[in-house]
Structures are given as C-alpha cells and as structure tokens.
Design a protein that fits this description.
Oligomer: single chain
Strand order of the largest sheet: 1-5-6-4-3-2
Helix content: 40-55%
CATH class: Alpha Beta
Order of helices and strands: EEHHHEEHHHEEH
Distance between the termini: 37 Å
Radius of gyration: 16 Å
Strand content: 25-35%
CATH topology: Heat Shock Protein 90
Bound molecules: adenosine-5'-triphosphate, magnesium ion
Structural class: alpha+beta
CATH superfamily: Histidine kinase-like ATPase, C-terminal domain
Number of strands: 6
Largest sheet: 6 strands, antiparallel
Shape: globular
Length: about 190
C-alpha cells in the first residue's frame, strides 16, 4: 500500500488571509510523556484562548479542548522520535475553525492512520464507533482507538492527513493532520 499523499475527507481550502485568529505552538513529545497531564493542560489553555470567539464560551471551550486533547495525545503517543519537535496550529476563519498538527511517525502508525481516515471518509461514524467498540473489547486493548471517530461522531469534525516521505529514512513519514470544525457545531457542543 502506498502511504504517501492526501487521505481522508476533502476539506474546503481556506485562505490564510481570511484568518480571524491564529496560534501555533511547537513542543517536544517527551514533555507530554513525562507529565501526561500536560496534554490536557495544553488543550485547555488553547481552548480558553479561542473561546472568546463564541457566544457559548463554556460549551465552546469544552468542545475545542476535547478535540485538541485528542490530537495532542496522539502527537505524544505516535511521534517516532519523542525529542523531535511537533506542532499544533489553530486557525479561526469565521465559519470554520481548523486544527493542524505536524509530526513524524513510523510506518505502522501511518498505515493505521491512513486506514482509519480512509474508512472514516466513507462510513457513518456511528457505525464505525460500534465496530471499533467491539474490536477493542475483543482484544482487551488499553487504547480504545475511538479518539478520531468520536470527534467525527460527536461534533461532525472533518479530518484529513497529508503523508510525506522523510528524506533518507524509508521507515518514517511526515504527518500533517488537519481537523475542521463548523463553528455552529462548536457552539452547540
Ligand atoms: N499524529 C499521528 N501520527 C501518526 N499516527 C497517528 C497519529 N494520530 C493517530 N495515528 C494513528 O491512527 C490511529 C487512530 O487514532 P485514534 O486517536 O483514533 O486512536 P488511538 O489514539 O489509538 O486510541 P484513543 O484515541 O481511543 O486513545 C492510532 O492508533 C495511530 O495508529
Ligand atoms: Mg487517540
């Protein structure tokens, strides 16, 4: 299977000139691994920075934090080199808010991500949720494998990834994951 290229939902291209707000942070996965609470602290901080755009600030902060926490935990868990910087960027475009993460990951994780996003782009999230629930229960795994599916099921998030080769290392790939949320869904919770 070819791992390179774009996979997942087709996201409407946004012009950076239309951004109402933008924030990008870079961090080392190792810091999250040694203090796992930093994932949720970072997600809460970023969510509270953006909550002022929303009428229902409490609801919006909760939704944004849930989405960011999921992506930040994935950066910690699936980055190949825990001492190599990863990034999270949040952009608010008025109708849509986007999260973009960048990291490097090993072949097995990238293949799993690709398979998951391919499935998610064509299958009803409720159905995938039940399917994954059964899968996890039958294998008794610690991770539920429901993180990304839940963001689609609960908030209608659209997800897409761009996979690029890392020069001189055929076992590693550069992952840019994009998640788009309609502002209405963020307000509704
Ligand atoms: N940033 C990433 N880089 C590389 N692979 C990723 C990344 N994010 C997700 N993946 C891959 O996609 C799979 C699905 O991610 P998802 O967040 O839905 O589940 P999970 O993290 O395994 O479990 P849970 O989120 O329920 O704890 C992961 O198991 C991993 O293999
Ligand atoms: Mg996850």
């Amino acid at each position: 299977m070819d791992l390179l290229g774009q996979v997942g939902d087709t996201l409407t291209p946004q012009d950076p000139a239309d951004r109402l707000s933008n924030l990008r942070i870079e961090l080392l996965p190792i810091d999250l691994i040694v203090q796992w609470r930093r994932c949720s602290k970072m997600a809460d901080f970023l969510a509270s920075y953006f909550e002022y755009h929303f009428e229902s600030r409490v609801v919006a902060a909760q939704v944004l934090s849930t989405g960011l926490n999921e992506l930040i935990e994935n950066l910690a868990k699936f980055s190949a080199d825990k001492q190599r910087p990863v990034s999270v960027e949040i952009s608010h475009f008025g109708e849509v808010i986007t999260f973009e993460t960048q990291n490097e990951a090993r072949r097995a994780e990238v293949a799993a991500l690709r398979a998951r996003l391919t499935r998610m782009a064509t299958t009803d999230p409720e159905e995938l949720f039940l399917e994954q629930l059964e899968h996890t229960a039958s294998r008794d795994r610690a991770a539920s494998g429901l993180g990304l599916i839940n963001l689609k099921k609960d908030y209608g998030a659209r997800l897409s990834a761009e996979i690029r080769a890392v020069p001189d290392d055929p076992e590693r790939f550069h992952v840019t994951l994009q998640l788009a949320l309609e502002v209405d869904a963020v307000e509704r919770g």
